[in-house]
């Protein structure tokens, strides 16, 4: 690992930038140690751009054609984690699995339509709608206190 320190006049706060070809366990541990806490961001990729996505920015995470995507107000990003890894990593107080292929951020849900027989229609803050599978309806109702 190369380390470069640059001193510039007029800088009021230190800034650390990590440049790498991919997120590794070593980088995650480094970020965790430097920030003094848990990593609350995921590495998302769009084209050649990599971006750290804060968990509070995630609207939903879904799997499609063997790939996992995070949807934010800023757009869609490909993640290099599996859905089950994200389910373990994202805080259960904010994120709930609604189907085998999707996890939603409860804080980004506008409403739930319970009128459908056996399923729940979920309206999200970005205007999208998605559906909870029957298998997860009881779990969602439990979280909502229904």
Description:
The structure is a single chain. With 146 residues, this protein is α+β, with helices and mostly antiparallel strands. The chain has one domain (25-144): OB fold (Dihydrolipoamide Acetyltransferase, E2P). It has 3 helices and 10 strands; from the N terminus they run H-E-E-E-E-E-H-E-E-E-E-E-H. It has a 7-stranded antiparallel β-sheet. Strands 8-9-10 form a 3-stranded antiparallel β-sheet. The longest helix is centred in the first third of the chain and has 11 residues, at 25-35. The protein starts with 24 loop residues before the first helix and ends with a helix.
Instruction: Report strand order across the widest sheet.
Output: 2-1-5-4-3-7-6
Annotated CATH architecture: Beta Barrel
Low-confidence stretches: none
Q: Look at the structure and name the CATH superfamily.
A: LytTr DNA-binding domain
Q: What Rg, in angstroms, do the CA atoms define?
A: 18 Å
- Give the SSE order as H and E letters: HEEEEEHEEEEEH
Name the overall outline: elongated
**Percentage of residues in strands:** 35-45%
Counting H and I runs of at least 4 residues, what is the number of helices? 3
**Total number of domains:** 1
Ends distance? 52 Å
Q: For the record, what CATH class applies?
A: Mainly Beta
Give a count of the beta strands, DSSP E runs of length 2 or more. Answer: 10
Main pleated-sheet profile: 7 strands, antiparallel
Question: What fold name goes in the CATH topology slot?
Answer: OB fold (Dihydrolipoamide Acetyltransferase, E2P)
